[in-house]
Design brief:
globular; binds zinc ion; Cytidine Deaminase, domain 2
Length: 137
């Protein structure tokens, strides 16, 4: 499967979102996009802060934007995450915890870069043995 062909639409939106990254401190630009089953795209970019801990990653930006419009995990078709770096920018630990809450376990998560590297995974693979609402029952 050619991931860049198969997921061209969502990857195009994610790369476009990457251009909006506000990353004056790390200079690490990330774009994300959530595609909902109604055919809409919800983008996010990383937004940093001089108080570093207040920075927000692209994945969370895109997922929070999606949920803020009333969508929920069952409405989400796929998610994409891209960087301009040589390595694939897999999600940080904080984002994985948010993704396990806000995505279905088998929703495709496409991770790609500008150097034609790509992989398709899902949050179950990215965060096995996760802490979820099941732990609170
Ligand atoms: Zn993150």
């Amino acid at each position: 499967m050619d991931i860049f062909k198969e997921y061209k639409d969502i990857l195009d939106h994610a790369f476009s979102a990457m251009e909006n990254a506000y990353a004056p401190y790390s200079n690490y630009h990330v774009g994300a996009c959530v595609k909902t089953k109604d055919g809409k795209y919800h983008i996010g970019a990383n937004v940093e802060n001089a108080s570093y801990g207040l920075s927000n990653c692209a994945e969370r930006s895109a997922l929070f934007a999606t949920y803020s419009q009333g969508y929920r995990k069952e409405d989400i078709e796929s998610m994409a995450l891209v960087t301009g770096e040589n390595t694939l920018g897999t999600p940080c630990g904080a984002c994985r915890q948010v993704m396990v809450e806000l995505l279905n376990g088998d929703t495709p998560v496409v991770i790609a870069n500008r150097q034609n590297k790509a992989m398709v995974t899902n949050i179950t693979e990215l965060l096995p043995f996760s802490f979820t609402d099941d732990n609170l029952k």
